[in-house]
Write a sequence for this structure.
């Protein structure tokens, strides 16, 4: 047996070696002979082979060198590339390519660019070739964007490249230094240029180094010194270097005021923020600049000015009349939203005037109905009331729309004015939306809202009526009347039955009717709105075990309903355990990957003992497919789902192990690997060394560490030195954007990372970026094992975008008490979707 | 199932009127098309421009090692040209019918003095290469659409293969059919589309034939046994403009070149049926990133070492591949290649001469290639 194995091994090794020796079907010796051929075509074919052979064809170098002097530029070009490849050294090749570059055809130039972009060894020759390529305007940007991707190995060559230049060329090279290079060597490559004889090189170096904490002081000192120069051009360069930074440096405080009277509006706008922060006495100058900028022709300039005016806050009091004046101009409608945003800090002062503007011309008023109008509405509530009571239909309609933005406490007084509007077809919808916005404050209108269903087009308004009633939460007595009215209908539609269920779930004593209504909907052959059903079922809990039977029947009838019902089963809890049997059956017969994985998730949570059977089927299905289509690109989404399944407790069984192993080894997608690696190692501890090595090999250079790789490593070994150092480096405050990555990794790791808590807390004190603050707070609350009520209030009230709120799901079981609060959050369908995701995730957490 | 382009069942009135309509279109439209100037490009004053009267080029082939060029135009006439000076040799000879584009083969006699022109719907014609005059004709029957021919026995025998895959042999000098030559009846299921440019090609030694009707097959001519098969892979990346293109044999019959449906070219060893090389375009289609550009064959060098191909897209670059390595050895800019790439001929001495459509519809030019470009060949003495 051993002999057979040894022979097999020899055969395999021999085939590999043979394959490497003859990648073009013939041995290297054959191509060396061809290189000596007198037939030019044969020789050129051999040159093509050596271009691709690389160092394996090193023996060809002496034969290729004479070809660099060939009369044909094409022959010289091809031989130069071949020589570069076989020697892995472009010293001889680059001068030829440089001299012939202008003579090359467009196709060849394009090929040369691709050749340069594909070379992984960033040596002097490659940078010399970049220099040649950059002379073609269409290649310049591609080369510039490519250089940072070469990683820190390219730093020595880039440093030499800067050094080889003089004067303005050197300044431009310094200015173009990729920020990742500076981060990697803490700016050491540019420090010496702070003493360059050329002032422009000093400015470029100082501007590049200023964002880095280590050389910042020296860099700013150079700028301060040069700002006092007699040469106006130098001072101008200093100012432009600083205003391009978008950062404010306290140590450069003396420089910024020089820009207040600069001829260029761009520079003047650039100093607005630093001057406001560092020289509060110069706010008047700032207001003058912004006054000019908001009247500028350029949209970019105007919007920048609006942004700066918003940041100015109450200090920009003198700007309020200017902005209001702009809002009154006929052209203002196009900028209305941004202008209102800029005026928001002065809402109390100008609110009435804004209200007058809204109602002066209903058409323009329509265009002002944006989210930025909200802060002004409470200040012109009187105008809203007047127009709601008035006779002008256009203004009345507009007032009803604006009324929606009133705070519920103020809105309570408007309810009697809105109720009559429910009866007019043209205003029914807007009145319903306003009442919905007031929630329980509009309880007195509940019966009128329900009465809308009796109007001729009542059925059309049913979804809005339902939303309004659910927001209002009618009294039990009112609910009784509504439920009785619905019950009296001879043939209720599925939508009416869903409304019955919704109202019955609100009623303290009539929950059984909800069960009956839902059962009727589920067993009814008529079509119903699945999303509405899912919304109604949001109110279902463990006490509604009676619903399990009809839900099972509906799911058997239409397996695709799982998309809406999976969360319901999880919420029903142990009572729904029997569904697992049906789902196992589905998993065996279904071929839709998404449905199967969703079903598996429910089985994991409800009946973990049977999850092995689900794992078996999933592994077989994926492995068979991957054997037929090994690339696996079309399964990318489902790989993600498998990774999510791995995160579902109690985690997969050994039956899934073959698939997890294949995914980890053959499909190196760091995000997926990072999520499944922990489970993989848990199930097969022998894999740990392989998994860790695979991640370590791809850890990369700071700041280009793939997040999935960091996560994978730290989930397996929370004290992994290199990965932990990378996370800490992200959080050390040397850059404004990278702490977010560190915070996210900390949030996504189940176990606390040693030494990270202090860094997160330190960052939280200064970093105002919501994209950092939310994951950092979630991570810290998890570390503490309890919710921080103040933070939660801030997060929920901050109206942060839904994507950010999604991070709340990582609170796990800790976040379960938040479910009712998140469910009650207002928002459009998109925001609601984000909220539902959070709720679903928290419900699943164990 | 009836394939597109294969036999249409006769009999229905609708089919009959469709056939009548297509005949009218062919009679009216094709001569009208022949009058249309091809492109407004100015003629190169130094170029060797060959005028075909009012007719466009259908097929061209180099003879006598590239010294002579034979062109077949839309008027059904064969013209011989001296490629050194660009002058016609002798008068144009009427070897086919006007608008007869189908399945022409130009067979150079091994004595170097005669040319046999054979095709579907015409008699085979034997011409003198010295003055282009017709020496005599062979009454090759038209039945079953004869699509491919070969000269055997040192030029004494003309072999004819029709689309039912049956052989007949004729004595070139006497024109008489040799009664003793027949091959086996093809098994059921082997069927060849005979329409348009023939996709059935007989090897120069008539021992094999190659077919490409989507599926590329090399078969033994006597037994019809397949030596090589390349099935469509179901991932066809492109719509063929003129293809699938016919297979090309090297002059010695040792290799055959197929045009695969996956946008690659396959060079196959005829004796063993083994695939020697797959030629493909290395870069992606600029309109569809990630999808390789498709190439179509233009010519196979007589020694079987080089393949000239064109990119089948708007760029239409000409690319010369080395069969030994499968790599691109030359690439030429697209300016010389028009929509009628199939009429481009490569001279027997590889890498030198090309025939390309000229600046006007009825002209062709002779170009030569060096290492980096293709340029019009100037007539000797200019």
């Amino acid at each position: 047996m051993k002999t057979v194995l040894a022979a097999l091994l020899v055969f395999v090794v021999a085939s590999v070696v043979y394959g490497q020796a003859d990648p073009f079907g013939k041995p290297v010796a054959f191509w060396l002979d061809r290189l000596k051929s007198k037939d030019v075509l044969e020789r050129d074919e051999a040159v093509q082979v050596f271009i691709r052979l690389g160092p394996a064809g090193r023996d060809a170098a002496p034969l290729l060198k004479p070809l660099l002097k060939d009369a044909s530029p094409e022959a010289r070009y091809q031989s130069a590339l071949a020589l570069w490849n076989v020697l892995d050294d472009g010293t001889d090749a680059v001068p030829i390519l440089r001299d012939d570059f202008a003579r090359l055809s467009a196709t060849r130039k394009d090929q040369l660019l691709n050749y340069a972009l594909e070379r992984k060894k960033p040596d002097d020759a490659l940078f010399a070739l970049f220099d040649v390529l950059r002379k073609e305007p269409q290649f310049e940007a591609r080369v510039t964007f490519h250089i940072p991707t070469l990683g820190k190995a390219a730093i020595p060559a880039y440093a030499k490249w800067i050094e080889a230049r003089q004067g303005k060329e050197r300044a431009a090279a310094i200015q173009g230094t990729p920020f990742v290079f500076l981060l990697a060597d803490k700016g050491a490559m540019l420090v010496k240029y702070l003493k360059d004889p050329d002032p422009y090189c000093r400015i470029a170096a100082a501007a590049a180094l200023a964002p880095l904490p280590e050389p910042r002081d020296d860099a700013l000192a150079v700028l301060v010194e040069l700002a006092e120069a007699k040469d106006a051009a130098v001072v101008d360069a200093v100012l432009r270097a600083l205003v391009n930074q978008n950062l404010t440096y306290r140590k450069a405080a003396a420089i910024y005021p020089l820009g207040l009277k600069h001829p260029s509006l761009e520079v003047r706008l650039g100093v607005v923020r630093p001057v406001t922060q560092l020289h509060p006495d110069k706010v008047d100058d700032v207001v003058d600049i912004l006054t000019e900028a908001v009247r500028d022709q350029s949209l970019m300039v105007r919007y920048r000015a609006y942004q700066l005016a918003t940041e100015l806050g109450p200090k920009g009091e003198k700007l309020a009349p200017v902005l209001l004046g702009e809002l009154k101009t006929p052209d203002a409608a196009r900028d209305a939203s941004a202008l209102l945003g800029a005026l928001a800090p002065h809402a109390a002062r100008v609110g009435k005037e804004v209200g007058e503007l809204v109602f002066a011309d209903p058409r323009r008023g329509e265009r002002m109905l944006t989210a930025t109008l909200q802060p002004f509405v409470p200040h012109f509530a009187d105008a809203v009331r007047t127009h709601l009571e008035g006779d002008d239909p256009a203004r009345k309609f507009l007032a009803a729309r604006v009324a929606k933005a009133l705070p519920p406490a103020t809105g309570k007084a408007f309810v009697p004015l809105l109720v009559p509007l429910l009866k007019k077809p043209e205003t029914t919808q807007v009145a319903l939306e306003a009442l919905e916005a007031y929630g329980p404050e509009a309880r007195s209108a509940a019966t009128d809202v329900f009465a809308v269903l009796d109007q001729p087009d009542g059925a059309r308004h049913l979804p809005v009526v339902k939303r309004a009633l659910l927001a209002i939460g009618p009294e039990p007595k009112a609910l009784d009347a509504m439920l009785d009215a619905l019950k009296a209908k001879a043939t209720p539609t599925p939508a009416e039955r869903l409304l019955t269920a919704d109202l019955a779930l609100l009623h303290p004593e009539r929950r059984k009717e909800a069960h009956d209504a839902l059962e009727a909907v589920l067993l009814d052959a008529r079509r119903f709105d699945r999303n509405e059903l899912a919304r109604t079922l949001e109110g279902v809990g463990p006490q509604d075990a009676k619903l399990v039977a009809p839900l099972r029947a509906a799911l058997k009838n239409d397996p695709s309903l799982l998309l809406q019902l999976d969360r319901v089963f999880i919420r029903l809890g142990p009572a729904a355990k029997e569904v697992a049997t049906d789902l196992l059956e589905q998993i065996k017969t279904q071929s839709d990957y998404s449905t199967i994985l969703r079903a598996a998730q429910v089985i994991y949570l409800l009946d973990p003992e049977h999850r092995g059977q689900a794992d078996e089927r999933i592994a077989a299905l994926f492995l068979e497919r991957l054997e037929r289509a090994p690339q696996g690109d079309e399964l990318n989404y489902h790989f993600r789902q498998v990774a999510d399944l791995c995160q579902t407790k109690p985690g997969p069984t050994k039956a899934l192990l073959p698939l997890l192993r294949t995914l980890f080894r053959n499909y190196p997608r760091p995000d997926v690997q990072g999520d499944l690696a922990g489970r993989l190692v848990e199930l097969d501890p022998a894999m740990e060394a392989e998994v860790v090595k695979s991640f370590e090999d791809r850890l990369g250079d700071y700041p280009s560490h793939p997040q999935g790789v960091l996560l994978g490593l730290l989930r397996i070994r929370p004290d992994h030195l290199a990965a932990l150092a990378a996370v800490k480096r992200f959080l050390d405050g040397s850059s404004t954007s990278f702490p977010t990555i560190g915070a996210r990794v900390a949030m996504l790791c189940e176990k606390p990372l040693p030494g990270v808590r202090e860094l997160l807390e330190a960052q939280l004190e200064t970093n105002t970026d919501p994209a950092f603050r939310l994951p950092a707070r979630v991570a810290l609350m998890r570390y503490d094992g309890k919710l921080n009520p103040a933070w939660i209030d801030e997060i929920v009230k901050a109206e942060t975008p839904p994507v950010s709120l999604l991070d709340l799901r990582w609170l796990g079981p800790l976040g379960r008490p938040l479910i009712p609060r998140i469910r009650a959050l207002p928002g459009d369908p998109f925001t609601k979707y984000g909220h539902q995701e959070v709720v679903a995730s928290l419900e699943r957490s164990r | 199932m009836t394939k597109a382009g294969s036999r249409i069942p006769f009999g229905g009135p609708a089919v009959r009127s469709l056939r009548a309509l297509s005949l009218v279109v062919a009679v009216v439209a094709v001569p009208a098309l022949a009058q249309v100037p091809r492109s407004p490009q100015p003629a190169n004053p130094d170029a060797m421009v060959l005028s075909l009267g009012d007719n466009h080029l259908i097929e061209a082939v180099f003879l006598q090692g590239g010294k002579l060029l034979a062109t077949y135009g839309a008027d059904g006439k064969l013209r011989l040209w001296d490629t050194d000076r660009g002058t016609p040799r002798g008068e144009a000879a009427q070897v086919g019918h006007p608008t007869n584009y189908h399945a022409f083969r130009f067979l150079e006699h091994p004595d170097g003095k005669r040319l046999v022109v054979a095709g579907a719907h015409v008699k085979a014609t034997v011409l003198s290469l010295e003055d282009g005059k017709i020496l005599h004709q062979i009454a090759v029957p038209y039945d079953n659409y004869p699509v491919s021919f070969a000269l055997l026995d040192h030029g004494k025998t003309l072999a004819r293969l029709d689309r039912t895959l049956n052989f007949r042999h004729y004595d070139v000098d006497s024109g008489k059919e040799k009664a003793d030559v027949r091959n086996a009846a093809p098994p059921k299921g082997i069927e060849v589309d005979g329409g348009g440019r023939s996709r059935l090609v007989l090897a120069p030694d008539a021992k094999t034939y190659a077919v490409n009707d989507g599926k590329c097959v090399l078969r033994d001519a006597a037994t019809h046994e397949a030596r090589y098969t390349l099935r469509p892979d179901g991932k066809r990346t492109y719509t063929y403009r003129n293809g699938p293109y016919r297979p090309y044999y090297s002059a010695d019959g040792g290799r055959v070149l197929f045009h695969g449906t996956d946008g690659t070219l396959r060079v196959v060893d005829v004796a063993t049926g083994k695939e020697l090389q797959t030629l493909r375009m290395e870069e992606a289609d600029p309109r569809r990133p990630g999808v390789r550009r498709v190439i179509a064959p233009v010519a196979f060098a007589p020694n079987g070492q080089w393949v000239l191909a064109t990119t089948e897209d708007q760029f239409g670059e000409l690319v010369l591949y080395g069969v030994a390595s499968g790599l691109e050895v030359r690439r030429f800019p697209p300016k010389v290649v028009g929509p009628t790439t199939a009429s481009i001929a490569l001279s027997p001495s590889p890498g030198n001469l090309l025939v390309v459509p000229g600046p006007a519809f009825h002209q062709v030019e002779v170009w030569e290639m060096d290492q980096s470009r293709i340029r019009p060949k100037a007539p000797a003495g200019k």
Observations:
- Residues 146 and 162 of chain B are 4 Å apart (CA to CA).
- The longest helix of chain B spans residues 13-34.
- The radius of gyration of chain B is 20 Å.
- Chain B touches chain A at residues 276-277, 283, 305-306, 317, 320, 322, 324-331, 333, 350-351, 370-373 (CB under 8 Å).
